[in-house]
Specification:
Length: 688
């Protein structure tokens, strides 16, 4: 059956900077596509430029924004205009009817009421095709708008618009550009074609420094197809991408191919359910998982992979991927890829290793250059996943281990790369709270990362490195205070921070406080149990977390952040399921042989916090992280400790499911409750 019929690509879009129901965008693109396409309804809200309740449309935005907190790079807005051509988004917007707009993973169809124009778009990997149908007698035009330093040119003879744009919300190499070509199947009228800057001047070509600019081409036909492609390498490469992906192909053929590609991805897990709403939730989440990370490589004239590195400004051979924050995604997304997308996972890891080859550091949150967002180096867990589950070969893993040991041992000159304060972490066995912010969260992440590096080292036969890193993975114990029974800040002299408030967020903690950070030792629950004195005492502590009120204090943030608001909106105590540090907490019970409590809380969270609706998430999805949590939880599986081969196995919430894994299919049935071993080294642990 066509699974895309169940996908709501607007899931999670009813969000704002102060309250997130996902902080997602309704993206039309291919799985892992280099470009996404969405509606820009009100750019006055900056990164929140789309909202499902808006009835205004400023244009179709070619976007690379993985999260509003990370921002966009090289956005390009496309808009058919009539008669009067205007650049200002406050003047050019048209009304549209969201209820009549068709948004699917593989295509969109929207009617611009003001301009009496129907716009359809279908994506390719590095471009796409637009079909415009103009009603009425007014002259037809097609406008492009860019942000920042940009350049445009109209090639009347070849019926094309070419150009580049440079905007990036984050630091990139100075020569960073996205080149583009839009090829029309009708003539462009030279006398009426003009380039616009924000002051309304008209010139043959223009380059406006750090201001918006745009171009309009008047068309000789009221029914037009526009084939287009982009490149981060050169204009010639953009033309090559167009030739490889869209030239000579009809709108229907490109749309049909995009639909087939999406169906292959969505059907990697087939579920049966008596609830249509459950089908919608599941496959909307599957769509979210396969949007990112983004392809950032192109194919040369011999169809060999090449890429521009936004960190160094140079072009290299090989594949590359960006737009994924490993601090978020290692917890659920990559363990899901291990099961149903191992070939893509293998290429993604190769791309990450290419980043290490290019600039000397493995990525943490590349978009498209390293942003340095979030603590830790959780690429450690991503590569450990690939290592223990035979996703990558030994030679690749040996080079990956070099990169892992580099950031585990050496400080980077540029703070975006590697581990913050790594030399002091090695000196003290923790990050001192008087020297570094988020010291507890970073220490927890480094300890877990060290465990993951040990897994990789063991896989490639580096036993001494494995033993050393495994020993370091116990460093979280240096911050456990038996007097308060929490993990808390300690200064460089070895003294506890003077004040301690279990409900205060920030300071030593990232996007949480002591309660949310206490159990973040997935790799060593036995060690945490020993610190508490017994399994029973640890279970009592988890019971307390769920039983208490969702109180919080602004603490080091000095203001309320949206994650606090979202935790308070739920009824799960101090389990802030809206955010990554709490995702594993409901599953702690199962690890401690209290399976019934895990099943109770997972069922309650699924029912109260998630849906396929526009407000379908309790917090930021973060490029598929919450979506993958939902998928696992509905299936009755959970990767409690990424970087190991174990998945917890519990009661599924779907009637039946089949996971199409690399070498075999794995079936799940509500009537079954036995331990199962997947044949490609993924052991499913049946919790008692």
């Amino acid at each position: 059956m066509p699974y895309s019929q169940y996908v709501n690509i607007k899931q999670g879009t009813r969000s704002s900077s102060r309250y997130s129901n996902g902080n997602t965008l309704p993206i039309v693109q291919l799985p892992f596509g280099m470009n996404g396409f969405t509606l820009q309804t009100n750019s006055n809200r900056n990164p929140w430029f789309y909202h499902p309740d808006d009835r205004s449309l400023e244009g179709i935005r070619l976007t690379h924004q993985p999260s509003p907190w990370i921002g966009d790079y090289t956005p390009l807005v496309m808009l058919p205009q009539r008669e009067t051509f205007t650049m200002d988004p406050n003047m050019r917007w048209s009304g549209f009817k969201p209820e009549d707009t068709r948004l699917q993973p593989h295509c969109m169809h929207v009617n611009l009421l003001r301009y009496k124009t129907a716009l359809e778009l279908a994506p390719t990997m590095r471009g796409g095709i637009i079909r415009l149908t103009y009603s009425g007698d007014e002259r037809a035009g097609f406008s492009l708008f860019a942000k920042g330093t940009s350049g445009f040119a109209i090639d009347v003879d070849n019926k094309a618009i070419t150009g580049y744009t440079t905007y990036c919300a984050n630091k990139c190499a100075e020569n960073f550009r996205m080149y583009f070509i839009f090829a029309f199947d009708c003539a462009l009228q030279e006398n009426d074609s003009f380039v616009m800057d924000c002051r309304g001047k008209s010139e043959n070509a223009i380059c406006i420094d750090q201001k918006d600019c745009g171009i309009n081409a008047c068309l000789s036909s009221h029914s037009v197809c526009v084939r287009f492609a982009t490149s981060f390498i050169s204009l010639d490469q953009a033309k090559r991408n167009l030739e490889q992906e869209a030239a000579g192909r009809s709108f229907e053929s490109i749309r049909a191919k995009a639909e087939r590609i999406w169906e292959r991805s969505l059907s990697r897990i087939e579920i049966e359910s008596e609830s249509v709403e459950q089908l919608k939730l599941f496959y909307s989440c599957m769509y979210r998982v396969f949007l990112y990370p983004s392809v950032f490589y192109e194919l040369d004239e011999n169809r060999n992979a090449i890429h521009f590195c936004a960190d160094t400004g140079k072009i290299y051979r090989g594949v590359k991927y960006v737009n994924h924050g490993t601090w978020d995604t290692y917890r659920t997304v990559y363990p899901l890829f291990s099961l149903v997308a191992p070939e893509e996972f293998s290429e993604i890891v190769e791309g990450y290793i290419n980043t290490y080859r290019d600039c000397g550091w493995l990525p943490k949150w590349p978009s498209p250059a390293e942003t340095g967002a979030m603590p830790g180096t959780m690429i450690d867990a991503v590569i450990a996943e690939a290592a223990v589950k035979n996703i990558c070969g030994a030679d690749v893993l040996k080079e990956a281990l070099e990169g892992l040991l580099t950031h585990a041992s050496n400080a980077a000159k540029d703070a975006r790369y590697g581990r913050k304060g790594v030399e002091d972490y090695l000196k003290y066995g923790y990050l001192p709270c008087d020297l570094y912010s988020e010291s507890v969260s970073a220490t927890l992440d480094y300890a877990y990362g060290d465990f993951c590096i040990a897994q990789v080292a063991r896989t490639v036969g580096r036993d001494e490195d494995a033993r050393r890193m495994l020993k370091q993975s116990k460093n979280y114990q240096n911050l456990f205070d038996v007097d308060v029974m929490f993990i808390r800040g300690k200064d460089h002299s070895g003294d506890w921070k003077e004040t301690f408030d279990p409900f205060a967020w920030g300071d030593e903690y990232c996007e949480g406080g002591p309660w949310q950070s206490l159990f973040a030792v997935n790799h060593d629950i036995d060690g945490l149990t020993a610190l508490f004195g017994s399994k029973e005492k640890l279970i009592v502590k988890i019971d307390q977390l769920f039983a208490m009120d969702p109180d919080y204090r602004c603490g080091g943030y000095g203001r309320e952040i949206h994650e606090m608001t979202e935790m308070a909106a739920m009824d799960f105590g101090q389990c802030a399921i809206s955010n990554q540090p709490s995702l594993h907490i409901p599953y702690l019970y199962a690890v401690l042989n209290e399976k019934g409590k895990t099943e109770y809380w997972v069922a309650r969270i699924l029912q109260q916090a998630f849906s396929a609706g526009d407000d379908g998430y309790p917090g930021d999805d973060d490029t598929g992280t919450l979506a993958a949590w939902v998928i696992f939880s509905l299936l009755g599986l959970y990767p409690f400790c990424p970087g190991t081969c174990e998945y917890l196995k519990l009661k599924p919430h779907v009637k039946r499911a089949v996971l199409h894994c690399k070498h075999n299919d794995y079936s799940i049935d509500q009537s079954q409750n036995d331990a199962t071993v997947l044949q490609h080294a993924c052991i499913v642990k049946n919790s008692r």
